[in-house]
Specification:
Largest sheet: 8 strands, mixed
Shape: globular
Order of helices and strands: EHEHEHEEHEHEHHEHH
Radius of gyration: 16 Å
Number of helices: 9
CATH superfamily of one domain: Spore Coat Polysaccharide Biosynthesis Protein SpsA, Chain A
CATH architecture of one domain: Alpha-Beta Complex
Number of strands: 8
Helix content: 40-55%
Strand content: 15-25%
Amino acid sequence: MNISVIIPCLNEEPMLERTLSAVIVQDAISDVVVADGGSSDRSIGIAIKNGAKVTVGDSGRGTQLNAGWRASDGEILWFLHADTRPDKRASNLIIDAFKDNETSLTAFRLKFESADTRMRLVSLGANLRSIFSRLPYGDQGLAVRRRDLEKLGGLPNWEYLEDVWLVEQMRRIGRIKILPGSVSTSPRRYKECGVWNTVRQHNKIMKYWNQHHEPMPGGRI
């Protein structure tokens, strides 16, 4: 069993190299694909320098992830954000989880690279949601079997919420497993817009999702 790592990217020069550095040392990695949405910085060069394959196409996370996983060859597809770093044992935890045929999707606990108490509360909320509602988000390093995603025809070509859609589909196939390890994510998007403003926007978007099962116009996660 091997893993393809798929990283969506759009002008991620400040973050991409350290994420790739944390990925390429993992066990059982078949390939790493950086799915670029039209970067104007050095992201593509950084990806190539670190041995990743690169796809270039339209921006939008769903569109980019579809291009990335279709260019990969692993049995397990591990979707990582460009600002999210796994710990050293992450790939082994994924492999172990998928030895159970009932497992359809894995995710990690979330940790922010910040000592800010507010970010600790945000990560606590995310981890409780994942454990009790079995609804992890994309910044928790989701992984699925290639054959399962192929049966679904891939992800929706949405700008965001493709992760929530994927988790809900995988619930119908098997078990969502929250792994004992964690991934470290940058708090930059919360700091850009304000921590509690960002949390309120996320809640508003998810309320809309629960009613309509599609992305909210003008929303963004």
